[in-house]
Specification:
The chain is mainly β. The chain is built from one helix and 14 strands.
Length: 191
Amino acid sequence: MISRGSLWLPLTILALLAALSFWLERMVELPASGAVATRTDPEGIMENFNALRTDLDGKPQYRLSARELRHYSNSKFTELESPRFTQLDAGSGDVSAVSNRATVSPDGHEVELLGEVLVERAAHAGQSLMTMRSTRLLVFPERNLMRSPGPVTIHDATLDLRANTMEYDARQRILKLSGRVQARYISGKKG
C-alpha cells in the first residue's frame, strides 16, 4: 500500500516545474498588446557622426553632426551628444545650432536640441552675426523651421531681444517672437 506522504513529493515537484515554466514563459514573451518594449542599451553607437542632406540636384541643404549618436531600435529613438545642426544657404548665410544633447524623431523630421542651445546666423551682406540662446529648440529640417517653446535671448549688432517663445522660418528669413517680448536698440554711434 502506498502511503499518503509519498504522493506529495511528486505533486510538489510537478507544481514547482509548472510554476517555473510559467515564469520562464512570461520572461521571454513579447508584449501581447503590441506595445514596443523599451531597451536600456542602444542597438548602435556611432562616434563623430556627420550627415549631409542634399536636394535632388545635389545641392547641400543641411548638415547634422554629433560627438556620439546612440540608436535604440525597439523605440526607433535616436540620441545625440554634443550635436550641431547647420542649415546651409550660400545666398543668405548659414544658420547653425549647437547644444549639449539632442533627440531625433523616428521619421527624422524633427530634431530636439536640449541643454545650452546656441543658434548663430552667419554675418552676410547687410546683416551682422545674430545669436540666440535657449534651453530647448525644436528643429524641423524639411520645413526650414526652428521653434523655441521656452524663453529665448537674441543678440546682434543693433538689438538685444528677450521673449517667451520664438519661431524662425529660415526659408523666408522671418523671426516671430511671442509672449513677453523685450527689445533694446543698440546705437551704432559712439558718443
